[in-house]
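Bench log. Compound arrived from synthesis this morning; before running ITC I wanted a structural hypothesis for how guanosine-5'-monophosphate sits in the protein. Inputs:
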Amino acid sequence: MSKGKLFIVAGPSGAGKATLVRGLLAADSRVQLSISFTSRAPREGEEDGRDYHFVTREAFLAKVEHGDFLEHAEVHGNLYGTSQSWITEAMAAGQDILLEIDVQGAQQVRRAFDDSVGIFILPPSSEVLEQRLRNRGTDSEEAIVRRLANARGEIGRLEEFDYAIVNEHIDQAVRDIVGIVRAERCRVPAQAERHCALISSLKG
Ligand code: 5GP
């Protein structure tokens, strides 16, 4: 079985990553989303096991000690991490995997998997970014101010990524990310592995 690809989606809070990821998952059933662990409290409407695995800070730190995370980072004052065992199993099953994580986590994953694909999501303007954070209505003023300040630092690391999508119109942005995933699957090394019998027979 050919190995699955690892896609990383990052970008500031309010860039619309979650909506874009939902659009990709709906359009492409071969992509599986990794559900992260977090010490953040659930927001209204969020479900344990669907949006995140919600754990206490102590339980999170115990998992760090135990080596359970492929990557982990503190973002906006909360801890977030990607399960190592889930990734190992999904990759062994040949699935394409999507991680929606911050820029620090993205850097750690790219060190471990140098053939992973980094996709950065940009908001169309600073005003829209702020508006989107406020419209969510789920974060305190303090959390919004912190997320806006962090956004500048995150955008400063854009060059570490392979692709950038400006999320102005969600339909167009979903088409862009679907196109990136499809193009990556058509890279020669991936196709040569997937279709080795066909290619050998065609070579004669
Ligand atoms: P939120 O609290 O808004 O759900 O997420 C805050 C930030 O944490 C987002 O930038 C999100 O991409 C990031 N994040 C979510 N899960 C993970 C993870 O497993 N690892 C890392 N490093 N960042 C994560």
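What the model suggests: The chain has a mean pLDDT of 94. The first strand starts at residue 6 and ends at 10.
ITC booked for Thursday regardless.
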